Each structure stands twice: as C-alpha cells, then as structure tokens.
Inverse folding.
C-alpha cells in the first residue's frame, strides 16, 4: 500500500455494475486489494454487503507518475489532468482525494466511523422510543402501565433492532477507520465523513460514496484545499 499524488493523465471512465452479492470481476479485484491494504480480508468483504441488488457505478483508469491505475467508485466528478492524492494497492486505486474540488472518493460500502455509527443508532433508538411514548400516552393514562410498557419496549427495540443493526455495520466502521488511518489522519474521532448530495449530469440529486472532503475536518487536515498550490 502506498500514497501517490500528482496530475493524472489518460483518464478513461465507463459505466459498470456493482453486484453486492456475487463480488466478482473488478469488484472482487478491488475487494482483494482493499483487504491487502488494511490487512484484513474479512473487513474488506464487509464493504460489499450493502444491498441485495446491483448498483450503477463507474470504472476508471488513469496514469500517474508513469504508472497505470484502475478504480471502481460509485461516481466520478473529476476530469483528465486533475491533481489527486491516491491510496493505491498494487495497480488498484482504493481512495482518491481531490482537495481543490473538495471531494473524496471512498470504497463502496464504507464511509462512517465507529463514532458516527454509534451516534446514528443512538438517534434511531431515541426516535423509536419517542414514537412509542406518544402512542402509549395516547392509549392509556395509567402511569404504572406506561412505565412497564415503555421499559419492555425499550428492551425489545435495543436487543432486537438497534444492537443487531449496529453490529451489522460495525465491520464497515472499522474498515473505514483503517482506511482513514492509512491516509495519514491521526485521530479518526475528530473527522465527520458525511455522504453528501451532488448534482449529476442529468441534474438530479444523488447521495453516493463521495465525501465533501474539506468539510470532514475541523483541524489537522493532511490535504487542505490549496495542498497542491503550496507544494
């Protein structure tokens, strides 16, 4: 695994299908490279288990510093001659950062740290409890009944919904943190990787595994917007 940077040349992009279940073809190659980069094939395999369907993605190839690299991302907004920071394993580009355009292209299925996952599922748990409390108060005025029902409901929601959902995503969170550390970020808890909406060529909004990179950092950003200008 290594980080390379500079102006890309001979960019070629074409549409592809990402099969979340079969994990074959270029997807399997990327998954294997990701596993080698983070030192865990098991964690890398977590990234492909996102949905029981195929997903429209983009395959790309480009040259950088005289070497050819390939990648597989949900969408691509940069063009030929863009200046990128690339996390690569062998000839596979796993992560691309375009600091000037404020975008970070991450492996499909990753994108939330453990801290973000815990916060998300805590909010979901609170939302479920709020709905239940409103229903209970509407149906009954018996305080004792309401307390017992709320307690039992909280146990059911936590052990049969919130906890299983968090555990299912935990591997992806650990994988995300390993990727971030490979990029030179010292404290993964200080960043906020949020999948943001971008307008595609058809003028429709889409949320993808493309991060508004500069917005993820309050401080200690290894690749600020003027990174290449200052070199």
């Amino acid at each position: 695994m290594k980080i390379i940077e500079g102006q890309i040349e001979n960019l070629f992009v074409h549409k592809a299908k990402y099969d979340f279940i079969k994990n074959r073809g270029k997807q399997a190659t990327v998954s294997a490279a990701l596993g080698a980069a983070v030192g865990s094939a098991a964690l890398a395999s977590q990234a492909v288990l996102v949905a029981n369907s195929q997903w429209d993605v983009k395959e790309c190839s480009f040259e950088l510093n005289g070497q050819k690299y390939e990648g597989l991302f949900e969408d691509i907004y940069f063009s030929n001659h863009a200046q990128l920071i690339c996390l690569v394993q062998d000839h596979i580009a796993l992560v691309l950062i375009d600091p000037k355009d404020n975008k970070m292209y991450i492996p499909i299925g990753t994108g939330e740290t453990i801290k973000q996952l815990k916060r998300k599922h805590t909010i979901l748990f609170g939302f479920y409890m709020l709905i239940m409390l409103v229903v209970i108060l509407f149906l009954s005025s018996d305080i004792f009944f309401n307390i017992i029902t709320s307690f039992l409901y909280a146990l059911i929601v936590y052990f049969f919904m919130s906890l299983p959902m968090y555990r299912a995503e935990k591997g992806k969170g650990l994988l995300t943190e390993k990727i971030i550390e490979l990029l030179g970020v010292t404290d993964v808890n200080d960043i906020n990787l949020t999948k943001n909406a971008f307008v595609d060529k058809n003028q429709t909004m889409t949320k993808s595994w493309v991060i508004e990179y500069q917005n993820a950092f309050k401080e200690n950003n290894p690749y600020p917007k003027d990174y290449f200008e200052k070199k």
User: Anything to note?
Assistant: Helices lie at 26-38, 41-46, 114-139, 143-182.
